[in-house]
Amino acid sequence: MSFAQSPKKSGLPREVVKWLQSLDLSFYPKNVRRDLSNGYLVAEILSRYYPQDFLVHSYDKGTSLSAKQRNWSQIEKSLQKHNLHLMKEIIDGSIHCKPRAAELLAQEVYTSLTNRSIRDLQGPEPDFTDQEYQKLLPTLARSTASKAIKNNLRITEIMAEPDISTNQRKAEVILHRHLELQAADRVLSHRADRNLCRLAARKPVPTSRGDECSASSGDAKSKFCSSSTWSRAAVTFKEIQVHQPVRRTLVNY
């Protein structure tokens, strides 16, 4: 007996997932960031509403940067005929596979074609960095400054915009946000340490009873030592005197 596999979690709202499944596409976008990047599947979605303006066979299925740019340029020109526009930042983020860019693209296409709204649709200034993901990680597991720049400034971005000053400004913005996150972590860590010190001052550790070993009265043959760390359990240490036999030499003087 075989069962139809349900699509993996894609990060899309439920209504968008149902809408995509109803369009009878050539393939379902299981990996939204990858499958929407080159624009081919977006053109196929738009062809369900405007078949005359979006001819699927005229779009490239390739994943190279040049193929992506050609497809998206053609999509934008066709959308202008119907007074439809997609945010340039969302398109660029989808081309370069930025975090949450493709998900936001699918939602924007959905609202434009169906005239429906989505509650959790992001504001006019989307953030396509991995900063939200970094905040979920422990401090020691987060990216270094160089890794943060590498993760958020893709090689395709540099290829699409090879201007050195432009890429330098992007790197500076990423580095600035990385340093801000580190500074915020230090403030939180300092507050946590200060709170621990206050709690320690309010609840001092009880002094141990009988920490010092005391000899028993009389011959001092046994000593007793107890500590609070052992739940006030007494540990007995007994001194044993060993009587060694006198050595006799074989040589007589």
From TrEMBL:
Organism name: Zoarces viviparus (Viviparous eelpout)
Domain (Calponin-homology (CH)) ranges: 10-118
Bias (Polar residues) ranges: 214-224
This protein's UniProt keywords: Nucleus
InterPro entries: CH_2 (IPR010441), CH_dom (IPR001715), CH_dom_sf (IPR036872), Spermatogenesis_Ciliary_MAP (IPR052111)
Alphabetical GO biological process terms: regulation of cytoskeleton organization
Molecular function per GO: microtubule binding
Region of interest (Disordered), residue spans: 205-224
Main location: nucleus
Protein name (Swiss-Prot/TrEMBL): Spermatogenesis-associated protein 4
Biological role stated in the UniProt entry: May play a role in apoptosis regulation.
Upper lineage: Eukaryota, Metazoa, Chordata, Craniata, Vertebrata
Locations listed in the record: Nucleus
Gene Ontology terms: cellular component: axoneme; nucleus
Pfam family, one: CH_2
